[in-house]
Specification:
- The protein is an alpha/beta fold.
- It folds into three domains: 129 residues, Rossmann fold (3-Layer(aba) Sandwich); 174 residues, Rossmann fold (3-Layer(aba) Sandwich); 156 residues, Helicase, Ruva Protein, domain 3 (Orthogonal Bundle).
- The chain has 18 helices and 16 strands.
- The strands form five sheets. A five-stranded parallel beta sheet has the order 2-1-3-4-5, sandwiched between helices.
- Helix 13 runs antiparallel to helix 16.
- The protein is extended and about 90 Å long.
Length: 473
Amino acid sequence: MRLLIVDDDAGLRQALSLLLQEAGYDVVTEGDPERALQRAEGEGLDLILCDVRMPKMDGVSFLRRYRAEGGQALLIMMSAYGSEDAALAAMREGAYDYLHKPFRPDEVTLTLRKAEEREKLRREVEVLRTSLRAGGAGDLVVSESRAMRDVLELATRVARHNTTVLITGESGTGKEVLARAIHRMSPRSDHGFIAINCAAIPEHLLESELFGHARGAFTGATAERVGLFETAHDGTLLLDEIGDLPLDLQAKLLRVLEEGEIRRIGGREARRVDVRVLAATGKPLEAAVERGEFRADLFYRLNVVRLHIPPLRERPDDVPALLTHFAGQAAGRLGHPVSITPSALEALTHHSWPGNVRELRNAVERAAVLGTGGPLEPRDFALANGGANGSANGNGHLGGANGNSGHATETNGTVPHATAGASLDLKSQVEAVERQAILRALEASGGNRRQAASLLGISLRTLFYKMRRLPVH
C-alpha cells in the first residue's frame, strides 16, 4: 500500500520511512503540509500518517482540506505529549486513529495493519454496491416482456435520483418488489428500506406509526415512540396503498415532503428527516382527486415520476420466466425438484391471472406442496377463474380433464416432459413450447411473420428475437 508521512521533523520522517519500507509499504514523505496536500492529490495514496502540530498547518486543518479536495485515504494522526485533545478532535473530524509519540515500532505497524484491513473491507463493500447498482432493475425483477422492460429501464434511471416516485398497478403486480429494486439501486442502498401499508393500519394509529408520539401524548402512550419517518432516516420509505391515507394525514404528509421535518404527536420540536419517499397504489388517484378524497397538491407532489406496472394478463411473455423463478424458489424451500409439464405450462401461460404475480406465485407454491412428486400437470394448479383441472382456452379459462389446450403442445412426442432438475429443465421446456407455438403460427400464416406475431399476441420485434434465440427456421 502507498503511504504518505507528513511531519516537520526530518529525523522522524526518515526513521518511520525506513521502518515502514521494511514492513512492505511504498512510502513517500513530506515536511510541508501545503506540498503534502499537492502530492496527495496525484499520488494515489492508501494511508496518511500526519502530525497533529506543525508550524504552517495543524493536523485538523490538513484533514479538513484533504477531505474537502476529495481525498479518500485513511488518516492516522501522530500526537506528542499534551496534544491528545487535538488528536481526538481530528478523529471526530474523520481520522481513523492516532499514535502517541514516542511510539514503539510494533505499535506503528499494528495500527497500520488494522487500518489496511479496514480500507480493504471498505473497497470490497464499494465494489459490491457498485455491481448491484450497475445491474439495473432487470437483475432484481423477473421479466421478459417489452412492457416491463420499459418500466424497469425507467426505474433504473430514476433510482439514482432523490425524486419521489408513484408506482401504480393492480393488486399483486409487484409494486413493492419494484420499490425495493429502486432502493437497492439508489445511493441510499446501504440504509434501511421500510414499507407500510396505509390501508392495513387503523386510522387512529396510523399517524403515530408514521410520525411517532411523545410520552403522555394520549391515553396508553406510556413511552415515547419513534415513527417510521425517523426510522427510515437516510433510507427509503414506501407508502403502499397511499390512496387510503386519511385526508388529515395527507396534509401532514405533504408538509413533511415539502419541509423535510416531522413533529411527533404531543411533541413540541420539529425533527429533520432525510427520507426518499416512494408511494404505491392500485387506485386511480386522479378520480379520487376529482371526488375530493385525495388532495390535489399531494397528488402532484407524489406524481413526479410515475411507474405503471401492467397486469400479468397483458404481458404473458413474463409467465414462463416467473414460473421458472417461483419453481426454483419452491424447490429450494421444499428440498426436492419442482418441474412443470409442457401442457401445464401452456395452460398457465394462457390463464388470465386476475391476482397477477401474487396469484401465480401462490399457485406454484400450492401445486408444489400438494403435488404427487412428479412433473406438475394442469390439474395440480387451482386457478381462480377455472378450477384445478383443465386446459387453457382463448379466454384464459381452464376446462377439460385431459389438461391439454385448444392447440396441442405435444406433437408426436417432440416436446419432452420435465425431468428432475428444477429450474434449468423448466427453461428448456419453456423454449420447446415457445418454438412449437411459433412454428404453428408460421404454418397457419403461410410464413407471414407479421401475421404470425399477431396470432401469437406478441410484437414483430419479439418474434424475430425469439426466432433467433430458439432458433426457428
